[in-house]
Amino acid sequence: MDKKIVFSGIQPSGEPTIGNYIGAIRNWVEIQNNEDYDSIYCIVDMHAITVPQVPKDLRKHTLEVLSLLLATGLDPEKTTLFIQSHVSAHAELNWVLNSLTYMGQLNRMTQYKDKSKRFEDSSINSGLFTYPVLMAADILLYQTDYVPVGEDQRQHLELSRDIAERFNNRYSETFKVPEALIKKEGARIMSLQDPESKMSKSDSNEDSYILLLDNGDAIRRKIKRAVTDSEGVVAYNDQQKGLKNLIDIYSAFTNEGLDTIVARYNGKGYGVFKEDLSEVVAEGLRPIQERYKDLINNKDYLEKVYKEGAEKAEYRAMKTLRKVYKKIGFIPR
Ligand code: TYM
Prior knowledge:
The protein contains 13 helices and five strands. The protein is mostly helical. The strands form two sheets. A three-stranded parallel β-sheet has the order 1-2-3. The chain has a two-stranded parallel ribbon with strand order 4-5. It is globular, with a radius of gyration of 21 Å. It starts with a strand and ends in a 5-residue tail after the last helix. The mean pLDDT is 96. The site of ligand 1 has 25 residues, from strand 1, helix 1 and helix 7.
């Protein structure tokens, strides 16, 4: 049986949050360890520059994210791990797909609408607008079957499918039409300060997210300040959104069912629950942070990983790109 191809990506626009971890990265590790899948994971630096980045910070964050991915258990022997800008086929296919994507479709992307709110109309760059097309290029280059992502990427995945189908209809079967792989649990971890919006590393309020490298004190402080409600009862429902999110996080780190957790805190206050949750998160992140400390200082190893990853990815990407160029009428060199 042919292995199913899995592709996903993460932006190095800062240090990943536990939202990234719960919604995506921990699933990537699970998939990598499943013989039925052939997985490819990419650090998407080209996506990151759609919002202003300080060059030296972008370089630093790219290596930090690579180290963190390795520290969470991704293994370059079992998976392909690379940096997007190292494989130029991504930019090349992006250009082709731009010519197949309608402005109207891009205008409907909710993430674009949210992100562009931060800028004046005259300073929204066109990269932010065509961001989802580059994402489609990432995915389609590898003839991807499944894309494990958090809930916030669902609409982008739909667009990738549309673009693939449009290309296939116009030029004959070329791309596999990918499917989003979104788990029911943990696909949308919310801000600790506003349980109506997702946890995001670009949030201006540091108390709203927990970073994978936060120490025990920071974790405790942020969870203590997390917004809950005045019910005073640890329960899992949509009226107590803040608490619901905290229980989701607890469950993600302990792999315990929601009912088990709720039962444990029956009759206990939020204070006790938050104390324990802080411990659970800090304990869960500790081994990752320990491995990270060694990795980030081992520049030679990191370089070896991303170079070998790029070679493997490029070989596969070029196969698709050559096919695409031929189909659309470009003359081979
Ligand atoms: P990015 O870098 O914002 O996030 C990486 C992954 O983490 C998930 N995620 C979350 N999941 C649950 N709760 C949250 N609060 C949360 N925040 C983030 C995201 O859904 C994502 O899976 N556009 C993508 C990167 C990308 C990509 C791709 C993904 C570029 N090309 C191709 C898949 C395939 C992004 O900005 O992810």
